[in-house]
Design brief:
The structure is a single chain. The protein folds into 2 domains: 7-93 and 101-275, Jelly Rolls; 278-419, Jelly Rolls (Sandwich), CATH 2.60.120.10. 4% of the residues lie in helices and 36% in strands. The chain contains 3 helices and 28 strands. The model has no long low-confidence stretch (mean pLDDT 94). The protein has a 9-stranded antiparallel beta sheet with strand order 1-16-20-13-10-15-8-7-28. A 6-stranded antiparallel beta sheet has the order 6-25-24-27-22-21, with no helix packed on it. A 4-stranded antiparallel beta sheet has the order 2-19-4-3, with no helix packed on it. It is mainly beta.
């Protein structure tokens, strides 16, 4: 029988939670002698001197401190890769992949991770990596922690229950969860199989974007983000911690579950978000607006207005623009765009881009609707249309995404992707009557 979990609401809030009464000290963070015999341990996700608005840290009260494990030894990488990415030369071609096949042998969340592309370097705390995962087994008595970056997990198939040091969260397709840098967790599958996407952010933590002229409300609202309440394991046994550190995997033996935090308070914690609660902002007049209006979260870089990584979604929404080509227009971008599809169809592609699939359009690589979508949209009746049964997303980053050797040699790479634009033929007609252009100009209607 499925257990209903409890959450705390808010983004970046100062939370306080205890699984046992009296476990959370009152009036101070580190008492000389904890009344329940717990160890005090602070967990910092930013430098101590980071400005208060972005400072992230949590005080934990645990059965044993984190240091009580055996020495780490290198662990096989499998198909996980990390920055700096230099396996194959990056290329300006548009790239697209079919979904990652589901495994036959027993494969848990960590064993099922493969890396498609990335940029930057975790040693320099800039850049990111894009991973896919496919699993058919829970993690059992092994745990994972990423010291290189925070993990934004986007399920596409199957629900996950993540047992973390600070409590339990669940994420199903249509939801996301974020595991902060360094937090230990294990993943239990709530369905027979699971598949999805992971953004590993090496840089500054994700935060909500500024709203500017939009005002106080819209896009993702802070109250809809949910953090776990304290829940601990007091188990002895033969366990393993797998840690990603400076681009490599390491494993250490530990004689007890590391998920033994009985109480905690702070603002550095895992969280989840239901993407259906995103409040879309869109045009009510003309033209397809920039995709930045669909930004859920942004991890900034040192350059104002330029993201180390933006996470944007394209959910069900109304299309009402007049005198306009409604799908995304043809485009070349300084930023680099990785797209995934959780469910349904994407309005800029007629075929080939399926749930679980992915595409990559790097810096200045032309992209946009395929020939079939262009023809359909160019002659469509422009009445209000509700775009339903769709959920696509984009990771957009300032640095060129460098594919891995797996990404360029796997059988799921669509070598024929470029062909979807080859049907776009010359349409130039200078002899067209000039007066017809006036009717298409916004504001030219006669009242």
């Amino acid at each position: 029988m499925k257990t209903k979990l409890t959450y705390q609401s808010g983004f970046g809030n100062e939370f306080a939670t205890e699984a046992v009464p009296g476990a959370l000290p009152v009036g101070q963070n580190a008492p000389q002698d904890h009344p329940l015999g717990l160890y005090t341990e602070q967990f910092s996700g930013t430098p101590f001197t980071a400005p208060r608005a972005v400072n992230r840290r949590t005080w934990t009260y645990r059965i044993r401190p984190s240091v009580t494990h055996r020495p780490y030894e290198e662990f096989p990488m499998g198909l996980i890769r990390s920055g700096p990415f230099n396996e194959v030369p990056p290329m300006p071609n548009q790239l697209r992949w079919d979904p990652l096949p589901l495994p036959d042998p027993q494969t848990d969340f960590v064993s099922g991770i493969v890396t498609l592309a990335g940029n930057g370097d975790p040693a320099m705390q800039t850049g990111m990596a894009i991973h896919l995962y496919a699993a058919n087994a829970s993690m059992g008595d092994r745990f994972f922690a990423d010291a290189d970056g925070e993990l934004l997990i986007v399920p596409q198939m199957g629900s996950l229950r993540l047992h973390t040091e600070l409590g339990m969260i669940e994420a199903a397709p249509g939801e996301i969860c974020v595991i902060p840098r360094g937090v230990k967790f294990r993943v239990a599958l709530l369905d027979r199989q699971a598949r999805g996407y992971i953004c590993e952010n090496y840089g500054l933590t994700f935060r909500l974007p500024e709203l500017g002229p939009i005002g106080a409300n819209g896009l993702a609202n802070p109250r809809d983000f949910e953090a776990p309440v304290a829940a601990f394991e007091d188990r002895d046994g033969d366990f393993r911690i797998i840690t990603k550190f400076m681009g490599r995997l390491w494993q250490a033996a530990i004689d007890h579950s590391p998920l033994d935090v009985v109480a905690w308070h702070g603002n550095y914690a895992p969280y989840r978000y239901d993407l259906s609660r995103f409040n879309c902002i869109n045009t009510v007049s003309f033209d397809h607006p920039d995709p930045s209006i669909y930004t859920v979260m942004s991890a900034p870089s040192a350059i104002p207005g330029t993201a180390n990584c933006d996470f944007a979604i394209f959910p069900p929404r109304w299309l009402v623009a007049e005198h306009s080509f409604r799908p995304p227009w043809f485009h070349r971008n300084l930023m680099n765009e990785f797209m995934g599809l959780v469910s349904g169809a994407y309005d800029a592609k007629a075929e080939g881009f399926v749930p679980g699939g992915a595409s990559l359009h790097n810096c200045m690589a032309g992209h946009g609707p395929d020939a079939k979508t262009f023809e359909r949209a160019s002659s469509a009746e422009l009445k209000p249309v509700y775009l339903d049964n769709t959920l696509a997303f984009m990771f957009e980053t300032q640095l060129v995404m460098r594919p891995t050797e797996f990404a360029m040699n796997t059988r799921i790479l669509q070598h024929e992707y470029f062909e979807c634009w080859q049907g776009l033929k010359k349409r130039f007609a200078p002899e067209a009557v000039a007066e017809t252009r006036l009717e298409a100009v916004p504001g030219s209607r006669k009242g």
